[in-house]
Amino acid sequence: MPIAFYAPMKPPDHPVPSGDRQMARSLWAALERAGYRPRLASRFVAFDAAGDDACQARLGEHGRAIAATLLQRYRALPAAARPRLWFTYHLYHKAPDWLGPVVAAGLGIPYVVAEASHAAKQANGSWARGYRAAAAAIAAADLVFSPNPDDDEGVLPLLAAPSRLVPIRPGIDVAPFAAAASRRAEYRRRLAARHHLDVGHPWLLTAAMMRDGAKLASYRLLAATLARLGDQPWQAIIAGDGPAAAKVRAAFAPVADRVVWLGEVAGDTLPGLFAAADLYLWPAIGEAFGVALIEAQAAALPVVAGARPGVAGIIADGRTGRLTPPGDVAAFAAAVASLLADPALRRSQGDAAALQARRHHSTEVGAALLRRHLQPLLARFAGEEGGRPACPAA
């Protein structure tokens, strides 16, 4: 069954890696596993980083033109080849969906969103136009899958019924990480030889983009944490790159002799990297959730992270790692120190983390949830319970 897939912030085949791209790819894979045929509707990026109203107006105009073109293209297809549902991943005031609501209404098909956010404080700000467009798209949604509980309070009032909001746990293909975990000693030896690491010391891993704002704040808290660990044996491995790389490295100057910098790492090498480490660290300041946190757990790696609502849905505090108050360097350092001092606890939490990832964050689990909610919606729109009539072209 064909489905139109769109990600207004970053398409799933974007060349720059990020958690957003990974989540889009994971949802695509889950839709395929559920028996659907997602097809990329457009690579149009609706993201405005600067809060420029004129830019947002141009993006809106361009988006409406693309939507009209898509409608013409889809209507020219045989009925069996037309999308039966429109699926948008991640819309908010900086990256609204100018395409999906128009095309879905024009074709008379369901409009579904995964990860929408709506913050009333943006109503009269620099992204007011994008805010209104995002709100209109959310209000038009027949279903909103929510991976971040933090978003629910803003999204629910816009929906026609509370039942249209469906919690979904972010997921990945856990198999490569589980396989790597079974070869931990091998990956550890390779990494030690390549980067002159001491296999007798615990390795603390972080993998994240290096950008200004929340990412840089997390890196700085991480650097302050490492500086507090004193004489405990450890080595840190940091994978990632980006425009704030120089600022990130500067923050780690006091502990530079104990940090290995990998730069940007190819996706297919991540399972081995995660499996080789002893502990995954990420303060998660200002973050909804993190795909890397799931990857770490899938590789049987315990995690210390900031207790953001979405993150708390991934890490079970005291069972698969530790959660600390966001931005609290003392608490974060204490959690890391306690796990450094207890190898047996790290192993038991790592085993629990792998089980958690497999049971709750796998592609298979996500596919089952998507199918459970999309099939009745598709049936209703097919006319079994009366669907939405198609709208004429503008």
UniProtKB/TrEMBL annotation:
Keywords from the UniProt entry: Transferase
Pfam family of the protein (one): Glyco_trans_1_4
SUPFAM superfamilies: UDP-Glycosyltransferase/glycogen phosphorylase
Protein name: Glycosyltransferase family 4 protein
Protein source organism: Defluviicoccus vanus
GO MF terms, alphabetically ordered: glycosyltransferase activity
Gene3D superfamilies, sorted: Glycogen Phosphorylase B
Domain of life, per lineage: Bacteria
Classification via CDD domains: GT4_PimA-like (cd03801)
